[in-house]
Description:
By secondary structure, the chain is an alpha+beta fold.
Amino acid sequence: MHASIRHLLIAGFVLSEALHGALAADLLSVYREAQTADAVYAGARATYAAGQEKLPQGLAGLLPAISASGNTQINERDLQFRGNLFGFVSGSSRFNSNGINVTATQPLFRFQNWITYEQAKNQVSQAEATFLQANQDLIIRLAQAYFDILLAENNVTLAAAQKTAFSEQLAQAKRNFEVGTATITDANDAQARHDLAASQEIAAQNDLEIKKQALRQIIGRVAPEIARVGSRFTPQLPTPNNMDEWVDNGTATSLQVKIAQFNVDVAGQEVSKNRSAHLPTLDAVASYQEAAQGAGVQGGPGFDSKTKFVGLQLALPLYQGGTINSRVREAIANQEKARQDLENTRRTVALNTRSAFLSVTNGVAQIKALETALASSQGSLDSTKLGQEVGVRTQVDVLNAQQQLISTRRDYAQAIYSYAINVLKLKGAAGTLSDEDLAYVNQWLEK
């Protein structure tokens, strides 16, 4: 896991200036740019760096603690003596006093500190898993935004093509009406289809702009021209093609499950740490002190002193108002919550893995079916146009056939882009999503 973290951190700081001049950016190049620009990912990187500090903090409780203190002060003393043989006598003095103290403490037996150190190890591992999860989330978010743009561009193209086709049919309907070979109903229907297509084109252009802004939020700049899916696109069934294997592997390797398991481990250690508050503590203590003071009484001498000692210090908690027992009960309750969260995470991962697996397998079948439907829709349109020319089909039949073809093309594009995203989601659900998987999808793109 440490090697993966180093790889991500190095890749995240690679400059991407060359991307700005490219005519069409592919999925990998935009991903590299997102690693340096995405605010969510940058926050995850900072959280990971903060998580690494848990280990030295935990270790500090097992190491010596050394402190030094010093003081200096000016004292004024006013003395009055009564009832002596010489009557009332008074006197005053002004003197300076100084001191310095150096103390070193080495814990010998502090069970709480040892558990804190063990907790820190789990917290560091959890931080690593969380950062890797953030990278997988970035891949999914970026791929979703990328293919959303491609789909939106496709919808704009289809809407424009549909409007053009309906414009041609509208012009033909008007000509036929003028010469008396068509009714006003055909012309009105063609006009309605044309107006609807114009409205759909505007909506598609607006949707494209929204999708571009979603990518801009990730990469921090205006969305570039991006590569499109080309002839190298080859949908394939998952390997292995067995849903139960994916679910079993996913629950074992999922980063979400690992993060939840670390929560359970830390919660269990918290129970032990609170229980150990009943135990005594033993420290080795060494101290060095120097003190100096001027004459404190009129006519009296000052002094200088040095003190050194080394010893053991034992502390035994006897009663603290029930605080320790209450904290133990609280920790046990939190441990049970962590266990239930872990079980829920396992079930959620299993559900997401099954869903993604079915989406991929169904996507392959859907793409093949839509390829056949495209050929059928195109053939239907051609035969309908021919039927209109010989008088056996109407203008409305042609418009319906054109609309069916456009709808099939839209569904086909949607199936392709959904399949590409679901391939990544399946790996993400199983906790194995990596740059190599993104490169696998990226090979389908052509600049």
